[in-house]
Specification:
- By secondary structure, the protein is mostly beta strands.
- It has helices spanning 30-34, 41-46, 58-64, 70-74, 106-132, 151-155, 160-163; strands spanning 7-11, 184-191, 200-209, 217-222, 228-230, 236-237, 246-247, 251-261, 269-279, 292-315, 322-343, 347-354, 357-364, 368-371, 383-392, 395-405, 408-413.
- It folds into 3 domains: 7-15 and 179-290; 96-164; 292-413, Sandwich (Immunoglobulin-like), CATH 2.60.40.
- It has 7 helices and 17 strands.
- Strands 10, 11, 12, 13, 14, 15, 16 and 17 form an 8-stranded antiparallel β-sheet that branches. Strands 3, 4, 5, 8 and 9 form a 5-stranded antiparallel β-sheet that branches. Strands 1, 2, 6 and 7 form a 4-stranded antiparallel β-sheet that branches.
- A hairpin with a 2-residue loop joins strand 16 (395-405) and strand 17 (408-413).
- It comes from Setaria italica (Foxtail millet).
């Protein structure tokens, strides 16, 4: 796969003044981006089926109406004193010298930059030809891959490697402090550029480094010993849950390193390795929705016999489903724990398909379980428990549980 393609949707709201963002100086190729070259106007015009919800509800404005003192700007929740700003400020990152810049001369960096922008332009031109010829289905728009080194890296100026803490490969914190509703991104699927001609095993990582804390937030993460088997004719990677919501105001970086595991005796094949920066100001990127909050879905169950189980989620405003679980389940304990972004005051829908039966739930922040099955779920005779919490402003704002234990169905609010 020479280019990186992904299918995502972005949810945006008014940025909160408490959120400190990465200061981003001008780098090579920015002038081209501002003028529409390599993905500007073409990206805007190339978007199909995007919808804009301009409702700016009173509920959304309530969170932004407070007058911030100097202490508030530092990021402490007035209700319980918990911090809800980044774990580390971007400028507190200890690495101020780009490691890549030490490997190249200024002339070599210039050649790499020119070659990368030329390649990006060629890919965009190919996509534009498909678009103008009304090709169906139209592949996803190719994203702009950053040069592996820039002139800023060599000169010692602030480059994207330093801005996004590339030298730090740690995963973002599991227990990070949660933020108030703001611009977030929900990834529905990760797709290869075309369906596979043969089954392959893929390993490596696909992660996001955002303005909250530029550490890796994984959407795909498999070791060589535990690759994902992608069947022939398929083009999607199985998603894992991010550690936390993805905040995208105004830039974020996709950190990708994917490989194809080959048979013994053959070297593995690189699929894609590099970085892609997304500028969320492009109108063609995703659908604009106001006031997103972070939602955690967790299912615990017990099954004596292996059963094929598929659980998916969807949110108001989008038709796409988020795959939460797809496979065989047997035994007891946690099936999965997944984080999604849900529009404030809107609903979260969860669907379970098993043994040719379908079960549906609907949850809403501030209300709880709106719709749920009235009968036990076949295959889970002992217990099946679904926990849903809507998290905002430093803590879980509301949490509910739907449970079926020994055929006894119960809806409860969890404080």
């Amino acid at each position: 796969m020479e280019a990186i393609w992904c299918v995502v949707q972005e949810e945006q709201g008014e940025p909160d003044p408490k959120l400190k963002i990465i200061e981003r100086p001008v780098e090579d190729g920015d002038e081209e981006k501002k003028c529409g070259g390599g993905g500007g106007e073409e990206e805007k015009n190339g978007s199909r089926g995007d919808t804009v919800d301009e409702e700016d509800s009173e509920e959304d404005s309530e969170d932004d109406s407070e007058v911030d003192s100097e202490d508030d700007m530092r990021g402490w929740d007035e209700e319980d004193g918990n911090p809800y700003l980044p774990v580390k400020w971007p400028w507190e990152y200890p690495l101020h010298i780009c490691p890549e810049g030490q490997k190249y001369t200024l002339e070599e960096a210039k050649e790499i930059v020119e070659s990368t922008w030329e390649r990006n332009g060629d890919l965009l031109s190919e996509w534009s030809d498909l678009f103008n010829n009304n090709t169906t289905p139209l592949p996803a728009l190719p994203l702009r891959v950053l040069p592996r080194v820039t002139k800023n890296c060599v000169s010692g100026d602030d480059c994207y490697h330093v801005q996004y803490w590339i030298g730090d490969t740690d995963e973002t914190a599991l227990d990070h402090p949660y933020f108030i509703p703001c611009e977030m991104m929900q990834v529905f699927s990760l797709g290869l550029s075309s369906p596979l001609a043969r089954p392959i095993n893929i390993y490596g990582h696909f992660s996001v480094r955002d303005a909250w804390e530029p550490l890796r937030n994984y959407l795909f993460n498999r070791s060589r010993n535990d690759p994902a088997m992608i069947s022939q004719g398929c083009s999607f990677l199985p998603l894992c849950s991010p550690c936390r919501g993805i905040y995208v105001c105004p830039y974020f970086l996709m950190d990708v390193n994917l490989w194809i595991k080959e048979e013994e005796g053959s070297p593995d094949t690189p699929l894609f390795s590099g970085y892609v920066e997304i500028d969320t100001s492009f109108a063609g990127f995703g659908s604009v929705l106001i006031g997103r909050i972070e939602t955690v879905i967790e299912v615990k169950a017990e099954a004596e016999q292996p059963s094929d189980v598929r659980i998916s989620a969807s949110t108001s405003g989008f038709d796409e489903e988020i795959s939460l679980y797809d496979g065989k389940f047997c035994g007891s304990g946690s099936m999965f724990k997944h984080i999604v972004a849900v529009k404030k005051q809107e609903e979260l829908h969860v669907v379970l398909k098993m043994n040719e039966s379908t079960y549906k739930w609907t949850f809403k922040a501030g209300i709880g379980v709106v719709i749920a099955p009235e009968h036990p779920i076949s295959g889970f005779t002992q217990y099946f428990v679904m926990n849903v919490s809507f998290r905002t402003k430093g803590k879980a704002a509301s949490a509910w549980q739907w449970s079926c234990i020994c055929n006894d169905i119960e809806n409860v609010s969890v404080e």
